[in-house]
Write a structure and sequence with these properties.
Chain lengths: 557, 127
C-alpha cells in the first residue's frame, strides 16, 4: 500500500468520524405548506395588534397621568393618589415612580421602602429631548433590572410645569411577560401555537419557558445549533418573515422541527420587538403521569428532615457539597435538596449547578408568585409547605401546582425539596388574576380618599361597587384581627392568627408577613364554608398603612 | 539570656494561641458532629412546635422548655415533657396567641441528671 493510499484512507476515516459524530450535520427539514404558513401568519396578525393595544392603553394611561401632574408638588396627597390610581389601572405594573429632571426619585409607590428611594439617583436618566418624536408621549426602555431587583421594562412619560418646562418623568416598571401570558395561553389552547419575542439585539422579551428568559438569543450557547442560530440572526435582521429551524421540544427530550412566522412591533424611541409565532408546543413525549408514582407530602417532609439533620450535624460547606452531588445520598428519584441563603442566593441545586451563586429573589412563577421569597418567608416561621406553579418534567412540562417543604437550617440559610402532588389543574384566567390585583390596589387607592370604615363596609357589602364576581376581598390588621371579609362576614372582629390549614400553614400570619414586606401574591389552602372543604386560592395583598392590609382571594378549583 | 527568654515566651504564646484556635475548632466541629439533641422550632398558627430529631443525649431528655422574647409564659405553657421515645414533636399550644412580628426564641432541654442545656436559639417570624 502506497503512502498516498494510507493518507487518503486516514482523511476518509477522519471525515467519516466528523460526519457521524455530528460535528457537521445537515438537518433535513420538512417543507412547510403555504397553507400552514398562511394560517400561522393569520394567527400572528391577530396576536400582534392585541399586544399593541395593551401597550397603547398603558402609554395612554401613563401619559394622561403625567399630564394631570402638571404643577403638582412632590409631597402632596394628590400625587400619591394619582400614582396609586395608575398602578391600580395597570395590573402588569410592579411600581410607579416620579423622577426629577436632575434624575432623583421624588415619589414612589413600591414594595421598596419609600425612604430608601426618595432623593436617590435613578439608574436611567431622561430629558425633554427624549420625548420629542414619540407618537403617544411615552418612551420605553430595553429590559433592565430595577432597584427592587425585579427585571422588566420602564414606560416613561414627561411631566411639565405650567410654563411647559420639563420638570420630571413619570415611570411605570412592568414585567412584559404579563402582557403576553394571557393571550399566549389562549393561543396555545385554541390554535396550537406559542409565542416568543426578542429585540433585534437578541435580548429576550418573552418566552413561555422561564429558563430561557434573560438569555441572549444571538450569543447564548443554547442557540448554537446551525439552523436555530441562522434563524435567530435572520429574525434579528428582518422585520418579518417565516422559516423553520431545529430546536429542543417542550420536554427537552429531542430536537424537533419548529416552524415560525414573525413580525415586528414598533415601539417608541426606535425599540423593536420581534414577535415570533411558532408551532413548537409538542407535548407528545413519554409523560409519566401515573398517579401512583406521585410522592406524598409525608415522604417529602421526611426527605427534607433527613437533609436538615445532615446540615445540623455537618459544616455548611460539607452539607452543601452533599446536597449539590447529583450522585449523592440526597437524590431520591425525583427528590433533591435545594438551598438558598436568606437573601435568595442559590446555594444548592444539584441539577442546575450553573445557578449556584445566582440570586433568585425576584424569580416569579407564571402568575407572578415569587417562590424564593415565599421559601424565605416560610423558613423564617421555622419552615413548612409552600405552593407555586412550575412545569412538571414528568408530565410533559405542563405547569402544575408544586409543593415544596422548606426548613431553616439557621438564621442564614434554608433547605427544601418539592413534589408535584398531582392536584387537578388550577382553574383561573389571566383576566381574573388581573382583576384580583386591580381590586386590591383599588382598596389601597381608596384608603387615601375614603374613611377606613367606609371601605370596610364596602368589603362586607355584597352589593357594593367594589365587588367583582368570583373574588373575595378582606381586610386584616397587623395583629391578625379580621376587619372585613366578603367571603364570610361573620369572621369580622375575630382574631385569626391561630388559623391553620391541614398542611400546618398559617394563612393569616403569612398574609400579614407578605403585606408587611410590601405586598404581592401567594397561594394557600383555605376552608370554604360553601363547598365545605379546603380549596386552593390565590391571594393578593397590599398594605394600606402600617396597620391595615387589604387583600382579596380567588378560588383556583 | 533575655533573648532566650524572649524566644521561649514567643514560643509559649504561639503554642497557646494555636491550642486555643485548634481547641475552638475542635469544640465547634465536635458540637456539629455530635450534638446532644437536634431540635427545630416551627410557628404554626398560635402554637410553637419543637421537633426533636436525634442526638447523643436524646434518651436522657426529660423536659423541654420554651422562652419567647417579650412574652411572659406560665410554667404550665412553657414547660412540657419530652416525648417518651426521645424523638418527636412537643406542642406548646397557644403560646403564640397575640404574638406578632419577629422574636427570639430559646429552647432548653432538662435532662435526667437535672442539668438544663440550651438546645436552640433562633430568631423566628410570627407575622
Amino acid at each position: 500500500m502506497t503512502q498516498q493510499t494510507i493518507h487518503f484512507m486516514i482523511v476518509c476515516l477522519i471525515l467519516a468520524l466528523i460526519l457521524t459524530t455530528g460535528c457537521i450535520t445537515t438537518r433535513q427539514m420538512e417543507p412547510v405548506s403555504d397553507e400552514k404558513i398562511a394560517e400561522m401568519q393569520s394567527s400572528l396578525d391577530t396576536f400582534v395588534p392585541s399586544l399593541e393595544k395593551q401597550l397603547n392603553e398603558i402609554f395612554i394611561l401613563t401619559n394622561s397621568t403625567a399630564g394631570n401632574l402638571t404643577g403638582t408638588k412632590s409631597d402632596t396627597p394628590t400625587l400619591e393618589q394619582a400614582l396609586l390610581q395608575l398602578r391600580r389601572d395597570i395590573p402588569a405594573a410592579y411600581d410607579v415612580y416620579v423622577v426629577s429632571a436632575d434624575n432623583t426619585f421624588l415619589a414612589v409607590i413600591s414594595k421598596q421602602d419609600k425612604q430608601d428611594l426618595i432623593g436617590k439617583r435613578a439608574g436611567i436618566s431622561t430629558s425633554d429631548a427624549d420625548f420629542t418624536n414619540t407618537t403617544n408621549g411615552c418612551i420605553i426602555t430595553k429590559p433592565i433590572t430595577f432597584i427592587t431587583g425585579e427585571r422588566g421594562i420602564l414606560i416613561v412619560a414627561p411631566i411639565y410645569d405650567e410654563n411647559r418646562t420639563y420638570t420630571a418623568s413619570l415611570r411605570v416598571s412592568l414585567n412584559p411577560a404579563y402582557l403576553f401570558a394571557g393571550s399566549v395561553s389562549q393561543l396555545k389552547m385554541q390554535e396550537g401555537y406559542t409565542i416568543w419575542a426578542m429585540q433585534p439585539d437578541g435580548v429576550q422579551i418573552y418566552d413561555e419557558d422561564i429558563q430561557e428568559l434573560d438569555k441572549n438569543a444571538l450569543t447564548d450557547p443554547l442557540y448554537s445549533e446551525t439552523t436555530i442560530k441562522n434563524a435567530m440572526y435572520q429574525i434579528a435582521a428582518e422585520k418579518q418573515g417565516n422559516m423553520s429551524y431545529m430546536f429542543q421540544n417542550v420536554g427537552w427530550t429531542e430536537y424537533v422541527q419548529a416552524n415560525a412566522v414573525w413580525g415586528t412591533l414598533m415601539l417608541p424611541n426606535n425599540i423593536e420587538w420581534r414577535i415570533v409565532l411558532c408551532d413548537n408546543i409538542n407535548t407528545n413525549i413519554n409523560a409519566n403521569t401515573c398517579e401512583d408514582a406521585r410522592l406524598t407530602t409525608k415522604e417529602l417532609q421526611t426527605f427534607v428532615e433527613k437533609a436538615y439533620l445532615y446540615a445540623r450535624t455537618h459544616t455548611r460547606e460539607e452539607a452543601l457539597r452533599a446536597f449539590n452531588d447529583p450522585q449523592g445520598e440526597f437524590i431520591e428519584g425525583e427528590l433533591y435538596i435545594f438551598a438558598y441563603d436568606m437573601n435568595g442566593t442559590t446555594l444548592a441545586l444539584p441539577y442546575q449547578q450553573s445557578m449556584i451563586g445566582i440570586n433568585r429573589w425576584s424569580g416569579e412563577d407564571i402568575i407572578g408568585v415569587k417562590p424564593v421569597q415565599r421559601f424565605i418567608d416560610r423558613a423564617k416561621f421555622g419552615g413548612g409547605f409552600v405552593y407555586y406553579q412550575y412545569p412538571n418534567p414528568n408530565n410533559a412540562f405542563i405547569t402544575e401546582l408544586k409543593f415544596s417543604y422548606v426548613i431553616s437550617v439557621d438564621d442564614d440559610w434554608l433547605i427544601g425539596a418539592g413534589i408535584y402532588p398531582g392536584t387537578t389543574s388550577l382553574n383561573y384566567s389571566w383576566e381574573e388574576r388581573d382583576q384580583l390585583v386591580t381590586q386590591v390596589r383599588n382598596f389601597q387607592y381608596l384608603s387615601t380618599i375614603l374613611p377606613q370604615e367606609d371601605i370596610l363596609q364596602m368589603i362586607n357589602d355584597p352589593k357594593s361597587t367594589v365587588q367583582i364576581e368570583g373574588l373575595y376581598p378582606f381586610a386584616v390588621d397587623a395583629k391578625g384581627n379580621v376587619l372585613a371579609n366578603a367571603h364570610d362576614p361573620s369572621e369580622t372582629g375575630k382574631n385569626r392568627l391561630g388559623y391553620t390549614n391541614s398542611y400546618g400553614m398559617s394563612p393569616i400570619r403569612e398574609i400579614i408577613s407578605l403585606a408587611e414586606s410590601g405586598g404581592g401574591l401567594m397561594y394557600t389552602l383555605v376552608w370554604d364554608p360553601v363547598l365545605e372543604k379546603e380549596v386552593y386560592v390565590l391571594i393578593s395583598v397590599e398594605p394600606a398603612d402600617e396597620d391595615i392590609y387589604y387583600g382579596s382571594m380567588m378560588r383556583l378549583e | 539570656m533575655i533573648v532566650i527568654l524572649g524566644i521561649v515566651s514567643l514560643i509559649i504564646v504561639g503554642a497557646c494561641a494555636a491550642a486555643v484556635l485548634l481547641g475552638t475548632g475542635y469544640v465547634i466541629d465536635k458540637s456539629l458532629e455530635d450534638p446532644d439533641v437536634v431540635v427545630h422550632v416551627f410557628v404554626v398558627g398560635n402554637d410553637v412546635i419543637v421537633t426533636i430529631y436525634e442526638g447523643r443525649r436524646v434518651d436522657e431528655l426529660v423536659m423541654v422548655s420554651l422562652e419567647i422574647e417579650g412574652v411572659s409564659l406560665p410554667t404550665s405553657a412553657s414547660l412540657k415533657p419530652a416525648p417518651n421515645s426521645g424523638t418527636g414533636e412537643v406542642h406548646f399550644t397557644g403560646v403564640g396567641e397575640g404574638v406578632t412580628g419577629v422574636r427570639d426564641i430559646a429552647v432548653r432541654g432538662i435532662f435526667s441528671d437535672g442539668r438544663s442545656q440550651l438546645l436552640k436559639m433562633n430568631t423566628m417570624k410570627f407575622t
